[in-house]
Design the sequence.
């Protein structure tokens, strides 16, 4: 998986107190959401949150950078 794919993925978070599953838009398929609700999970669709950046050392020892599209940064290299 490319680091940009992982950094850009919608986020899913389970909040224990308030017992709530927070999901960003397009974070889970509609059938998955329906099944989780059928099992009793309380689901809250939320606005995108977070800002993650990453650097990965690839198998050939080069560096690969990725910036979260929800943030204001961009990957740069030397």
Sequence:
């Amino acid at each position: 998986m490319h680091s940009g794919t992982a950094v850009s993925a919608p986020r899913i978070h389970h909040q224990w107190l308030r017992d709530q599953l927070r999901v960003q838009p397009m974070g889970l398929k509609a059938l998955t959401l329906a099944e989780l609700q059928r099992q009793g999970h309380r689901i809250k669709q939320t606005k995108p949150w977070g800002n993650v950046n990453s650097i990965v050392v690839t198998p050939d020892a080069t560096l690969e950078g990725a910036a979260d599209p929800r943030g204001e940064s961009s990957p740069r290299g030397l």
In short: The chain is about 20% helix and 25% strand. The chain has a mean pLDDT of 88. The helical segments are 3-8, 30-38.
